[in-house]
Here is the input.
Amino acid sequence: MKSRLNTVNTLLVIMISMITFTTVCSQTPVESDTTEWEDFDTPELDFSESEAPVFSSSPDELVVEEKESFLNSYILDPMRIGLKYELAYKVTKPDRVMNNRLSYRLEYSRSFFDHFSLQVDTKIFTFLKNDHRARQISYWFNDNTEETEFSFGGRTREAFLQASFGKTSIRAGIQTLVWGESDFAIVTNEVSRLDYREPLSLSIDELRIGQPIITVDHYSESGDWSAFFTPDPKFNEHPKEGTGYYYEPFNGTVKYQQESDDDNHFEFGLRWKKTFGKSDISIMAASLINNEFALRMVNPELITRGKHRFHMAGFTFNRAISNFLIKGETAIKSKKAYNDASFQIVEKNALDASLGVDYYMKNSVTLSLEAVNYHIMDWNESIQGQPRNNYMLLAALGKELMKGNLSINLVSMYNGPYTNFFNILSTSYNWNDRTTLYFDMLMPFTDDPNSGLYIYRNQKQAVLKIQYQF
Here is the structure.
């Protein structure tokens, strides 16, 4: 009986998952525009171009110029759907399954009326039994109440409408804004928020999630100009209580309360970028709300969370020399919020910088090196949890085999002054045009309680993913 209930639970989860995904991605059927023609006695027929198809003079050679259907042109052709299954196992004690989930990805890109286009990139997750984000739920089945373990989630990276006129384009909707050059660090990329609910990733691009933004881009001989406005900026996502990565620094002894204020918390900024042969530079300035809440302790049992505004001015560059690409960026941020020993807010200026080089070999090998430093200006010992200089050294090696169908990548990071190492081995294999297999190894190492990776020191994992696109 128990085996039958487990089977029913599994089938129910899959059915609900598909129903949920179908509801999000459903299309309204349209009537066919195919026309049935009767026999004609006249050998030659002449219609205007806008009224009907054109036929040949011979009745035996009837040619019909069919119009592409609305369903194919506007719904099916611009749409791409991906189905992925992911299983991640924590190999260190206590060992357990961390990820056991299905994800459905919808991508849509279509132009309209020559000047407009719609872009959508969103995911829906089904967290199955034993996934660290699944939870126990009850449901009614066959006149009985049963219990099972699963849940749903979603993440939208892009969903915006773009209008283009000449050398100017305007986007409105959910977007991610990328201004920096680093693949691993946040220096000038302060606009888009990040998803730390799955924190073991070294790729900032994988962590970005969208938020409502209006952007304007203008391309001219003097350079490329970009401006943005965020009416209601959101914050980084962090692991929720009850999930596998949740960490509470105060062991549940304090409560958090949102600070109320009447200030305007919109964001805005401007960037200029210019290309010179094999080089480019950009200069930017922005007024931003920190993607993390500013925390302040009211009493030992209450901490308030508030929005904190700071201003950023930054500079980036790229320079290609033979098989090398040298890139860098720097930004000054005033004033950032930190905490002192009494857990009150202290405002200090910050100066962040990164410098990297990519080397492309002829045999499909790529080597990348990058150095990053986060510096707090006018730092003193009263600032808690943040050193004067927080630095990272990263090395990435990539190799493509089997005519590009097999990809192997190794990324290794050293972080100081609180010593920790983080290594990721990732592989992907294109089984065919639609199916891709992935295998990853996540290996954090640290013994320093002050390290940001200390709470994840036992999260060494093996990850298997299977993706199918149609």
